[in-house]
Structure formats: C-alpha cells, structure tokens
Amino acid sequence: MQKWHVELTKEDRKKIKMVLRSKRVSLEDKKRCQILLDIDESEGKKPLSLNNVTSKRGVCQNTVIRLRRNYAEHGIEALFRKNRETPPVEPKITGEVEAAIISTACSSPPEGKASWSLQMIANKIVLDGVIENISSESVRLVLKKRNSNPI
Known about the structure:
The structure is a single chain. The chain is 52% helix and 0% strand. By secondary structure, it is mostly helical. The radius of gyration is 27 Å and the shape is rod-shaped. The protein has helices at 10-21, 27-38, 50-57, 61-74, 95-106, 118-127, 136-145. It has 2 domains: 10-79; 95-145. The chain starts with 9 loop residues before the first helix and ends in a 6-residue tail after the last helix. It is built from 7 helices and no strands.
C-alpha cells in the first residue's frame, strides 16, 4: 500500500504539459513530469503500477517513490531541483588574489630572467602573503581568463 498519493490539480497538470512542450527544459525534468502524469490518481484515474512506470520510463523504483513523496510534501515544485545559494566550497582565488597575479605578471621579471614563468608568479604570490598556496595551473587559468600572457 502506498504512503504518498499524487493527485494533480488542473493547474499542476497545465504546468506539466507546458514543461513537456518546452525546448529549454532538461530531459531529466521532462522525465519527472511524465512520471507524475503516469502516477496521477486525480479524477478517479487509475495510475500505472510502480513496475509499469519503471519499465516505461527507464528509471528505478526509488526514483518513482522519491518523486511521489516529494510531490506529496512540496507540490509541483518537487519537479525542479533547487539551485544552491552558495557553492559547496568557497572559491580560493578571490579578486584580491587575481589582482596580485595580474600585477605580478605585468611587472618586470626578476633580475636575470627574461619573463615571468607561471611557477615564479605562484611562488611570488605565496611569498607576498596574498594566499597560503596556489598552483601554477591556477595562475594560468587566471591569466587566461584575463587574456594575459606573461610568457
């Protein structure tokens, strides 16, 4: 016996059909919409069984159960994933670090050198105390982003 029941309202069904017609929606979102339509119990409609939905849509049973539960708890918003407000890890390279890298790359190279190497820029930034540690690849990405070429 099911714990969560999906009974789509007319508005929800209308939103789902708009999503299915849209070209800007991911296939994953469209598949979730199709599953909701398959398990809809509104207006006396008999929903597809769990096994039929999984074989028809090519998903596992847990996906259907999770979608059913999320719809029962959150409504139509259960279809779409929420974007994170903050990234999982704060970026290591801030504007201050980027500015230090660019200013170092644009400055004259150390005595005895014709130009800055990426590793030399990384070492100087660390020695100046701008950042605790940084790789030459990170320096390269910052300079590439700013269309700077120290070499």
